[in-house]
Design goal:
661 residues, Maltoporin, Chain A, 22-stranded antiparallel beta barrel, 58% strand, 5-stranded mixed beta sheet, mainly beta, 7% helix, 7 helices, globular, 38 strands
Length: 661
């Protein structure tokens, strides 16, 4: 803890003294444009939500090796690297803790990659070198536009498109734990046709025993402009991964002298093969109004083995997903006001085949199931500019999901249908260029995923789970001072009913019998001082369960305090240095709903990257956990009620080269 606080105070002191020494100088600020908040291009200063964009230059300068690592420095985003090997992450918006992956909607080029099972988001599907930019929209307003899983917010990863000038780019690096990664991409355009192709290979032994991984990825983006009014696009990706899982170590095991790098689960693993194909068109009708249609198909196969205190299971699943999303965008005058209207329909069909063999409390069981989820969402959203600076927005969505369950062995079947009506309303007043205040309300939701209705331990189905709903309130301020200091402040409150969680006493997924309340503040700021770009954020989260079995208790895996700090500077023409630190406060173990255990310790995680810029690329070295802090990002109670730690890596490094031709 003392090392964490020392690191935080050193960074704060450095930032504050540098700021005090510099006289304010006017600076020009360019407005960011995002597509995620309204499913069409909008300036951030016009959106009634807390929005952040990670740009292509910020991605290139970062020491991060993966997309979740890029998100560590964003206000209100909590990232947990579970196994410490960069392959299995949880990314949390608005403090959803252990169910964060199911309450954060993740898109790639507008296509949802959240699965209909408990695997949530597989972040390894998105190689960092394929990413052009990342848009983060916090809060529940995304539920109206995108449907399921958007309770905490939406993260849209936008991949690189074909460039006008032909180019070949690549990155290769190696480092600690026998880590090696190579990436190559080609891009170009001819007449009205553009293409971008990418390949990625990564292997690592990992920090701990039985945490090795091997991943291979291929992807491409194609675009063709048929005419000034019609354009077509096609993109695809393939991912193959073999990953070992080291599991947890309890405090008693660590106190007995077991190494932090050891494993008591030498046979646990998870292998995945995943591919998708997405195509679409954009047809302009009149003026700026257009029709946008997107369709995609995806197949994911997983095989896994897990050993735990009271048993083990080996499973194989295959999920086939089909999605269709036509949208009509109208940019017209309505009653004399500039109005943007979005009318759309989302259809998704997921079929999951499960073959599962388990031993639970000594009782063996074998089961084969076919599960399916078919969802329909109709939505409308409008942005109306009442004046040049004042705008209001609102939307409505009607959503329905039909679940079917079939036991192949028992010859039994069951079904369930759940529906929700959602809405959002917001207002935004821009009082200066790039500066605004906003207020919004949203009703959001998430359905149970198929694996929450299916119990892997008992090989049984519970089709009576309800969907959870949330009321989301927020108010915020964005302001850029003449000195160039950019400041963002957001206050939020989220009240959730029927929250879906895993009950550690019944070994089953259930609806919480009390309301869960999340509220807090998200602050972020950036400023260039003496050619050093400083940025930082602070997030305060306060969570409580109101009523029911766990009345008055905090929610697991939600730190009350979180702080990020960053600085980057270019020396001369060739040397670029960047530092980024993240402080995460104490938080409850996963499944500790009755708050009966000590909390996980806080930690401060500091990274740095030194690059030598070449004419056609760069050479770099990145160091992670510079302070060599001993900590665990993730911890969960085991089936015996004892806290299990997932030790995080000690100081480690990678060094490599990137090139552009």
């Amino acid at each position: 803890m003392y090392r964490s606080l020392l690191g935080v105070f050193l960074c704060l002191w450095f930032c504050s003294t540098a700021y005090a020494a510099e006289a304010d100088q006017p600076a020009a600020v360019l407005e960011e444009v995002v597509v995620t908040a309204t499913r069409q291009e909008e300036e951030i200063s016009t959106i009634p939500a807390n929005v952040t964009v990670i740009t292509e230059s910020e991605i290139a300068q970062s020491a991060a090796q993966t997309v979740p690592e890029l998100l560590r420095g964003v206000a209100g985003v909590l990232v947990n690297d579970i196994a410490g090997n960069g392959r299995h992450y949880t990314v949390d918006l608005r403090g959803f803790g252990e169910t964060a992956s199911l309450n954060t909607l993740v898109l790639v080029d507008g296509r949802r990659i959240n699965q209909s099972d408990l695997s949530g988001v597989d972040w390894s599907l998105i190689p960092k070198d394929r990413v052009e930019r990342i848009e983060i929209v916090r809060g529940g307003r995304g539920s109206v536009l995108y449907g399921d899983n958007a309770t905490g917010g939406v993260i849209n990863v936008i991949t690189k498109k074909g460039t006008q000038e032909p180019s070949i780019t690549g990155t290769m690096f190696a480092g600690s734990y026998d880590t090696f990664q190579g990436n190559a991409a080609v891009s170009g355009a001819m007449n009205h046709f553009s293409i971008a192709m990418n390949g990625n290979y990564r292997t690592s032994d990992g920090y701990r025993d039985n945490s090795d991984s091997l991943a291979k990825d291929l992807g491409f983006n194609l675009e063709y402009e048929v005419s000034d009014r019609l354009s077509l696009n096609l993109n695809s990706g393939y991912h193959d991964e073999e990953t070992s899982l080291p599991g947890a170590l309890t405090k008693s095991e660590l106190d007995s002298g077991i190494s932090r790098t050891a494993t008591l689960h030498p046979d646990d693993y998870a292998d995945t093969e995943d591919w998708y194909l997405q195509g679409g068109l954009k047809l302009f009708l009149t003026g700026d109004s257009f029709l946008n249609v997107s369709a995609s198909t995806r197949q994911r196969e997983s095989q896994f083995f897990s050993f735990f205190d009271v048993g083990e299971y080996i499973g194989k699943t295959e999920i086939d997903t089909l999605m269709l999303s036509p949208q009509l965008v109208l940019n017209e005058q309505l009653f004399g006001y500039v109005t943007k209207v979005l009318l759309g329909f989302d259809y998704e069909k997921s079929d999951e085949d499960i073959l599962n063999e388990s031993i639970f409390f000594g009782f063996p069981s074998v089961a084969s199931y076919e599960l399916s989820k078919e969802s329909y969402g109709y939505f409308a959203h409008a942005d109306i500019s009442l004046t040049e600076d004042l705008a209001v927005s609102g939307g409505f969505r009607k959503d329905r999901a039909e679940f079917e369950f079939k036991s192949i062995d028992a010859g039994m079947s069951d079904s369930n249908t759940i529906s929700e009506d959602l809405y959002t309303l917001g207002g935004n007043y821009r009082f200066m260029d790039n500066s605004s205040v906003y207020v919004s309300y949203s009703k959001s939701f998430r359905y149970p995923v198929l694996d929450e209705m299916f119990n892997f331990f008992a090989n049984s189905v519970n089709s009576n789970l309800k969907s959870q709903t949330s009321d989301d309130y927020e108010v915020g301020l964005r302001h850029t001072f003449e000195s160039g200091l950019a400041l963002s402040v957001n206050l939020f409150r989220v009240v959730t009913e029927n929250e879906i969680f895993f009950n550690p006493t019944t070994f089953a997924n259930e609806n919480l019998d009390g309301e869960s309340v999340r509220q807090g503040i998200e602050l972020s700021a950036s400023k260039e001082i003496y050619d050093i770009l400083f940025n930082g954020s602070y997030t305060l989260r306060d969570t409580e369960i109101d009523g029911g079995q766990y009345d008055g208790k905090e929610l697991p895996n939600v730190p009350k305090h979180q702080l990020t700090l960053g600085a980057s500077k270019q020396f001369g023409r060739h040397i670029l240095l960047g530092l980024n630190g993240t402080y995460v406060g104490e938080r409850r173990f996963i499944s500790d709903f009755d708050n009966s255990h000590d909390k996980l310790d806080d930690y401060f995680y500091l990274t740095g990257k030194l690059s030598y810029l070449l004419k056609k690329g760069s050479a770099f070295i990145a160091i992670n956990n510079i302070l060599d802090e001993e900590y665990s990002e993730f911890g969960a109670l085991n089936f015996m009620g004892e806290g299990g730690f997932y030790p995080s890596p000690e100081i480690n490094f990678v060094a490599g080269l990137s090139f552009v031709f």
